[in-house]
Amino acid sequence: MKIAMIGAGNVGASAAFLLLSHKIAKELVLLDINANLAKGKALDLAQSATLLDINAKIQGGDDYKMLKNADICVLTAGFARKDGQSRDELASKNASIVSLWASKIAKFAPKSVIIVVTNPLDVMVSVALKFSGFEKERVLGMAGELDSARLKYEIATHFGLKNSDVSAQMFGEHGQNMFALNASVRGRKISKNELLHLENQAKIGGAKFIALLGTSAFYAPSAGIFKMCKALKSKNGTELICSIGDENGVACAQILKFGKKIKIINAKLNAIKAKKYAQAYAAIKQNLLNLENLSHK
Predict the structure, then answer these.
(1) Which one, 46, 92, 186, 234, has the greatest CB density within 10 A?
(2) Catalytic annotation, pick one of 22, 158, 174, 296
(3) What is the spatial distance between Cα 19 and Cα 91, in angstroms, rounded to a whole number?
(4) 3-state secondary structure (DSSP) of residue 189
């Protein structure tokens, strides 16, 4: 399997190392506007492969042609959030980057699956879907698993439990309209007030990193990328929460089953959760509309 990592920064390089160390890819390509950065990270990864006795072809650069015959293209390129900045504020800047790369992927890797990581996530999935011209099952957003992991972490930490004792899923958008789809703890119950508090902590999970590091998280997002690439490779029926476009080209979270074909598993939503999902969808749709209006000015 050939995987192209578009963006050789913290997220792209961390994900590339995970994919390499777990032998998910036989060929890894790092692409970045900064060719030397991509080449340097690729060289470091290649030497890591030597240490681990892993045989893999690894290269880096800025040439679009390096995308050729990629099975998976992971789009991490774009501006990261700054302290006090919302994901939506990045829309216009990152849309130009994502649209360019989506068109190049369609040209050089027309049979690939695109995994979008660039923020605002759901909006960028919609942009990549439009400019690649791919069917919706081949343009997916990595965020649902990351948000779910953050909720699971908050619950496990709050109760002093092992991660294996907690089950949790976040749904909706990758933003302020995300919500807990389900959450359970082995051997005890979570009160509504506790869940609401922990849900809110998960919502601001990304902002915590920006306040501490001055940039976005990268190890956890790279783990989310790894899970998706592994599911795409194995086709063993793994179910993951990912952003995917609908018939209107609007991307929002869905439960996807990764088999020979990617299938949408309808989430069970009560009236309250259905309303929250509708709010998330409406927010994404409005952000897309704002982006279109901006591009026509």
Answers:
(1) 46
(2) 174
(3) 28
(4) coil
CA angle at 58 for the pair 118 and 45, rounded to the nearest 5°: 80
- Between β-strands 251-258 and 238-245, what pairing exists: parallel, antiparallel or unpaired? antiparallel
Structure tokens at 19: 């994919």
* Spatial separation of the C-alpha atoms in residues 201 and 160, rounded to whole Å: 16
pTM (whole model) above 0.85: yes
Range of weakest confidence among 76-80, 240-244, 271-275: 76-80
Q: Is 174 considered catalytic here?
A: yes
**Model pLDDT, residue 293:** 67
What's the chain's Rg over C-alpha atoms? 19
Token pair for 33: 């506007």
**Of 182, 237, 178, 171, the residue nearest 203 (C-alpha):** 178
Q: State the amino acid at position 35 in one-letter form.
A: A
Residue type, 92: S
Confirm if 177 and 283 have CB atoms less than 8 A apart. Answer: yes
Rounded Cα distance between 277 and 283, Å, is 10
Nearest one of 246, 257, 250, 279 to 178, comparing CA atoms: 279
In angstroms, the CA 222 to CA 229 distance is 11
The separation between CA 53 and the C-alpha centre of its own chain, rounded to angstroms, equals 29
Q: What is the pLDDT of residues 114-130, one digit of tens each?
A: 999 999 999 999 999 99
Residue with structure tokens 């492969």? 49
- Report, as an integer, the average pLDDT of 174-185: 94
Chain position carrying tokens 């939506």: 88
DSSP conformation class of 64 = G
DSSP bridge partners of 98: none
Element containing residue 51 per DSSP (H, E)? helix 35-51
Q: Which two tokens stand for residue 35?
A: 């060719």
Tell me the C-alpha distance between 170 and 198, whole Å: 11
